[in-house]
Amino acid sequence: MTHSSLHIRKFATWVIWLVVVLLYGCTEPLFIDVSGSDSVLVVDATITNELKNHEILLSRSSQSDTEEPIPERSANLSVEVDNQQTYTFTEIAPGRYKSDMAFAAQSNNAYELRITTAEGKNYRSKSIQLPQATQIDNVYAELTQTDTGIDGVNINVDSFDPTGNSVYYRYKYEETYKVIAPEWRPWELVLANEDPPIATDALHTEEKRVCFATEKSNSIILTKTTDSSEDRITSFAVRFLAADNFIISHRYSILVRQFVLNEDTYEFYEQLNEFSESESIFSQIQPGFIIGNIFPEDGSDERVVGIFEVSSVSERRVFFNYVDFFPEEALPPFVDECRRSLATNSEVLGQAVKAQSVSLAGFLDNGDGSVTYIIQPRVCGDCTALGTNVEPDFWEE
Amino acid sequence: MKNRGIFFWGNLGLVFMLCQWSWAQTTKQNITISYENKTRKEVLLQIEEESGYEFYYDEQGLGAELISGDFRSTPVTKILTEIFKNTVINFHVLDTQTIILTSNVVIQDKLPQSFGFLDRENEKKSDSLSISSLPIEEPPPFLEEKEQQETELDIVRIGRQRRGVKQDEYKLSGIVKNANTGEPIPNLAIVVEQLSLGTVTNANGYYEIELPPGINIIQAQAIGIETSRKKIIMYNDGRLDFDLTDSAEQLDEVVVESNRIQNVENVIAGVVELDVAEIKTIPLVLGERDILKTAITLPGITNAGEGSSGYNVRGGRTDQNLFLLDKAVIYNPSHFFGIFSALNPFVTGNVTIYKGNIPSEYGGRLSSVFDIGTKEANTEKFTGEAAIGPVTSNLSVEIPIIKNKSGILIGGRTTYSNWILRSLDDEELKNSEASFFDIIAKYNDKLNENNSLEATAYLSRDAFSITSDSIYSYKNRLFAIKWNHQINEKNTLGISLSNSQYDFNIEFDGDADKNFDLGYRINETELKAKVLSVFNNSHNINYGISGKLYNVDPGYMDPLGSSSIIEPLEIQKEKGLESAVFVSDNLKVSENLSLDIGLRYSLFAALGESSQPIYDENLPKSEGTLLEVREFGANEIIKTYGGLEGRVSGRYFLLPDFSVKAGYNNTYQYIHTLSNNTTVSPTDTWKLSDLNVEPQRAEQFSLGLFKNFDESNYEVSLEGYYKKSKNLLDYKVGAQLLLNESIETEVLQGEGKAYGVEFLLKKNEGRLNGWLGYTYSRTFTKLESQFIEEQVNNGEYFPSNFDKPHDFSLVTNYKFTKRFSLSANFVYQTGRPVTFPIGTYFLDGAEFPLFSDRNKFRIPDFYRLDLSFNIEGNHKIKKFAHSFWNISIYNVLGRNNPYSVFFITENGKLQAYQSSIFSIPIPTITYNFKF
Asked: Does B848 contact A276 at a Cβ distance shorter than 8 Å?
């Protein structure tokens, strides 16, 4: 290497370092002392036109990283109807309040939520009308391919409101699917001795092969018909299931619930949704507090998070089997590769059985009357790792 | 032969020291000498021979006249007195064998009390002309470059100094004539810089002014006349005539320059004038001299943070500044997110910033006007300047086309980072881009006595990768042509036509099917005619009309590549016509009171073709409250807005160097940026007012006190302002602005208020010079509405994004010698407000961040220290190139000042991050040379 090219290299390195500094600079977490800020009341309240004991959740915002909401306990809660009738609520679990009477929200009535916290602070929601009730016309599964070429199944909704008043829709779903443990054996490993744990084998005492797992939607699914000439929802995809998603391996069922919302409520969820989406330099959004419809009664500017939602609900369930859509294809890969191993160390085996992390895959006859167990991850031979072995009431084969 | 030139004086002190030990030779005191029709030099040689004295003198100063004389046994001093009787030459018998001849100056026998070549500050104050106040060197002017200007000034010595005669003032008189016509120039102002002195020529062009002894810099200025500056050394009463030429740039004369005396005198308050030359020694960022970055060290002008483009002037938003480059609008005057300004320092002449009262000829922005002027090309000889820095290289040349008539100035600047990136092996780096360039050409032509023409063309472009798979680029392009015509002695007409375009583009080339090409463009064309009428000494009237046509392409997104599934989208175009008539009078009421009264009527028409949504007035604007969409045809008027704008200011002299100024200003703005970032972001767009977005308005009241001390070596000012604005654009929580087809449902229009006190102390001369500025200011926004959805922070005033109460800057330069100087900058600012996550909450089983009220918290304070060391090449006049080295360290303290604050959801938790641009000290070396 000549002397001058060395110089150029050095210079180039330096300039690149500089460009990196310019473009990426230095990014580090920023901590600002927000300890002066009070935690705020969080209200998760939905009243629908279903006749039932409605539930309302009260919690508080948290400054530390909590996995669970901090419940707001011992509050007095009531829903007032047209300033006449009052439905009271009772705390049935920390922060979970249930109406004492079953009731259904009626159209033409205005509902107001009132909260008195244990501290004695009073809050009241705006007066909310029940939106138009619109029935789901159809929920169906449809073979589809995404824009990016992934095969799968869409769960679509059709709905139509001839009055044109529904407009704002939110969907939630609850999906239940059958799980069949792929490496189920008639035997299982149980503990012969608790301490120290010693494992032995036995016949199953309960169903471990076929189970049912249920999951709720965890995203805010919204749509509106303001851009359409009529208040019609056609083939709105509530859920996309990729063909290789193991939850559709056998039989799958989804309950789609359609909520017709007020415009304010819709906008609240829309804003909430924006904050949960990932942000890029191209789509910076204005951060801030999302105003709901619950305010303190003393007229102070104290914030209350959440919205008192009064919505009309309609639901429909659909079932399908994997073979209905993919008759020729192999099942989607199971959640686990199900690798097996020999349990040569009985102490380790005992611990693993106690921790419920393994299931039995086979035996190896040692020839001296003893056996060595072949083990696998629990989920491969025990479906209760994923769901319940009790068939749900609604289940249809 | 002992001809020692003028440079001898520089060593005079040393001579004095030596002579105490020097050997005394025998010299004759009385000599007999006779000469006829000889030059003085020959006579002196004769005397040297006769007397044994040695003479030291500058040969040229002796002149070529022939003299005659006859002396018998006469003292040498007497003979010399006779020889130099009618000249400006003095002589001094230094010791028993040396005689020094000087022009004008009497050499004192004794050293002054302080042996003070190094202590010129003190001496300046004394009235007597001690030896140390000889014009040995020019006094060090404020900053380096300026000195060079001044050395280029003609030095005129007036009168001959006589021993024992000391007066406080001498009289300077003369006649001012037009060099072309030979006519005397009446009503021409003769102003003495640094002093509050001035006079005006009478009808015969005659003037008379009393000046203090010593160095004075006087300026002769009149409308339509090239301003002349001369350095005058007053030894006695004397005469100085001026032959002045017509100015090629009559329009510019309207701007009352804020040079030293005008700090106090200027009628318009809140004007800052920066000379590019002045900032030469200010510490640099990556080797770039930057006039706009210097501006933010002055009170009342800030930016959102390090490396952010956009300036906040007196609590105004970043979109409220009118940046004019040779009178054409420049939309994004920055490179690289604002780390560098897009103005080539070599071709920039000066910047005048109106932050208080905006002259009525300007309009369309609420807060300020940055009037940036490009230098005029040298029409006499080819010159150039070049700089080599670590990030960019810069070259400018001035080429005369017709001598003394026309010339062209061309300047260009570019980075070499791209070239280096491309030559690398690393794939990732190879495909990334980071570059910018700007190029400017200015042509000026003095067509004839009464007409002149000027044309400027400018282009700047930035391109860089924000992420590894996207390239972001933006471009400013402008063209301006200006014709000045002298109608008659009292009236000058200026007509200008300009066109500016700003666009940006993002190409995303990452995912196979989500590639897109996104862009934005704004284009404006302005035609303006202005007449300047000088009625008499007390009225300067300025009036005219202007019309500006806007064409905005608010955004498009097209799929990039055949596999892209992006749906093409184009937001409908916007068009608008902004016109104005304006008049102003600079009125001298009395010796002490001057007023500047301006009026402007502006009218904006939003034009079709367009579909304008109409919302229910009784409900918040949203899709649900849309009543109808009204269609407008091409060029059909959608809506007009307009109003009268008053621009009034006055100055009253409390003392000759102490004035009070007050002003009132109201402004309209019909174009708005859409930006929900605190800093100016790459995707900010400009939107015109339309049916749903009303023009912004502001009113400002200001009051200031201005005082100069110590012959204007120190300037002190204290200014206060109060500003109220209406219809400021702000955004709803969750607003998304780019490519939004119904943007009016995302924006809010609210009120603003801002107030502040600005203090500036400036030291113009001496080894240590610079300034110290401190501003206390607050700025608030109120977004109140009858609808809770359209309220922010309960409809109460909250601090604006750029509310930074304390702002302190110190800019200093210390000169060790003529060649070496050290500069230091220190800046401190309160951290700006931020909307910050204050916790999390669960709703519907999911966790969400809880944000505080808008702008409730502040990011950490900003402070930074920069140092630079400047080495001037030696001052040999004949050297081919004049060079200049600058070694700077930016951010010496390594302070991690946040540039932007953003939030990222990680593992379900929202974490705030700050990014800094220069978190470590950045050293740079730059080499500049002039040829």
From this structure: yes
Is the CB of B913 less than 8 angstroms away from the CB of A22? Answer: no
Tell me the mean pLDDT in the region B20-41.
66
Give the alpha-carbon dihedral of B42, B46, B49, B55, to 10 degrees.
Answer: -60
Cα B663 to Cα B314: distance, rounded to the nearest angstrom: 14
pTM exceeds 0.80: no
Contact A15 B417 (CB under 8 A): yes
Please tell me whether residues B239 and B276 are part of one structural domain.
no
**A306/A153 Cα distance (integer angstroms):** 33
The rounded distance, in Å, linking the Cα atoms of B415 and B436 is: 6
Which residues, numbered 57 to 86 in chain A, qualify as contacts with chain B under a Cβ-Cβ cut-off of 8 Å?
59-63, 65-66, 68-69
Q: Which residues of B touch A220 (CB under 8 A)?
A: 844, 846
Taking the CB of residue B238, how many other CB atoms lie within 10 A of it?
20
Residues B87, B149, single domain; the answer is no
Name beta bridge partners: A180. Answer: A210
Q: Is B734 on the interface with A (CB under 8 A)?
A: yes
B252 belongs to a structural domain: no
* Residue B440 confidence (pLDDT) above 90: yes
State both tokens at A286.
């204005």
Beta strands per DSSP E along A194-281: 198-203, 210-216, 221-224, 232-242, 251-261
Query: What is the span of the domain harbouring residue B182?
Result: 142-244
Q: What is the C-alpha separation between B671 and B675, in angstroms, rounded?
A: 13
Q: For residues B386 and B407, what is the distance between their CA atoms, to the nearest angstrom?
A: 19
Q: What is the pLDDT of residues B673-703, one digit of tens each?
A: 887 655 556 678 899 999 999 999 999 999 9
Beta bridge partners of A312: A260
Name the residue facing B840 among A62, A271, A286 (closest C-beta). Answer: A62
SS3 B165: coil
Find residue B863's DSSP bridge partners: B828
The Cα–Cα gap between B282 and A272 comes to 48
**CA–CA separation, A32 and B860 (whole Å):** 8
Are B447 and B469 contacting, i.e. CB atoms less than 8 angstroms apart?
no
Average pLDDT (B239-258) is 49
Q: Given this model, what pLDDT does residue A69 score?
A: 85
pLDDT attached to residue B24: 34
pLDDT value of residue B166: 54
**Cα-atom radius of gyration of chain B, to the nearest Å?**
32
Cβ <8 Å between B842 and A63: no
**B844 in reach of chain A (CB within 8 A):** yes
Per-residue pLDDT at B460 exceeds 60: yes
Interface test with A, best of B467, B470, B627, B848 (most A CBs within 10 A): B848
pLDDT digits over B478-522, tens only? Answer: 999 999 998 887 889 999 999 999 998 888 877 656 788 888 999
pLDDT value at position B778? 95
- Same domain assignment for residues B167 and B74: no
Lowest mean pLDDT segment, chosen from A154-168, A213-227, B656-670, B695-709: A213-227
Q: A15-130 has which fold?
A: Immunoglobulin-like (2.60.40)
SS3 B43: helix
Least confident of A52-56, A309-313, B850-854: B850-854
Q: Are strands B225-234 and B154-158 parallel, antiparallel or unpaired?
A: parallel
Q: Which one-letter amino acid corresponds to residue B143?
A: L
The predicted complex's ipTM stands at 0.81
* Residue B594 Cα to chain centre, angstroms: 25
| B656-685: average pLDDT | 82
Phi-psi category of residue B465: left, alpha or beta, with phi > 0 → left and psi -120 to 50 → alpha: beta
Pair (B87, B181) in one structural domain: no
Q: Quick one: tokens of B618?
A: 């009784």
Question: What CATH number has the domain bearing residue B33?
Answer: 3.55.50.30
Question: Using CB atoms and an 8 Å cut-off, which of residues 61-80 of chain B contact chain A?
Answer: none
Q: Clarify whether residues B739 and B769 are in a common domain.
A: yes
